[in-house]
Amino acid sequence: MPLDKPYAGIPGTTIFDADQSRKGYWLNQFCMSLMKAENREKFKADERAYLDQWPMTEDQKKAVLSRDMNAMIALGGNIYFLAKIGATDGKSFQQMAGSMTGMSEEAYRDMMVAGGRPATWGREQEKK
């Protein structure tokens, strides 16, 4: 029986819990492999071939190939592991976070410096 997850209804938020960890195990292991230079080179040389060495779902592989960070998170990716993909691509964490919000790096930075998103963000969906 699944545990009660009172946090499951937070709009626009995926909580990385035990279920997400199990779902994203191989995706996150792939990301951690990118800590080694030789693996980064293999990945950059033929991304699909490198991904096919991992028992990830096809949806996870497609999310990596398209660099869809939000999809990777929904599919069990942990942002701290996913950052290895960004680093492999020469992207900063701030650039990655901006891409996840649909904002430019500068707009994302300015929003965070100003205190982040308002608490009401994402709640518009609840009213529909």
UniProtKB/TrEMBL annotation:
Query: What is the name of this protein?
Result: Protocatechuate 4,5-dioxygenase subunit alpha
Q: Which organism is it from?
A: Ramlibacter ginsenosidimutans
Q: What class of enzyme is it?
A: oxidoreductase
Per the UniProt entry, the Enzyme Commission number(s) are: 1.13.11.8
InterPro entries recorded for this chain?
Answer: LigA_sf, PCA_LigA, Xdiol_dOase_LigA
Keywords of the record, alphabetical order, are: Oxidoreductase
Domain (Extradiol ring-cleavage dioxygenase LigAB LigA subunit): residue spans on this chain: 27-113
Coiled coil region boundaries: none
A molecular function GO annotation: protocatechuate 4,5-dioxygenase activity
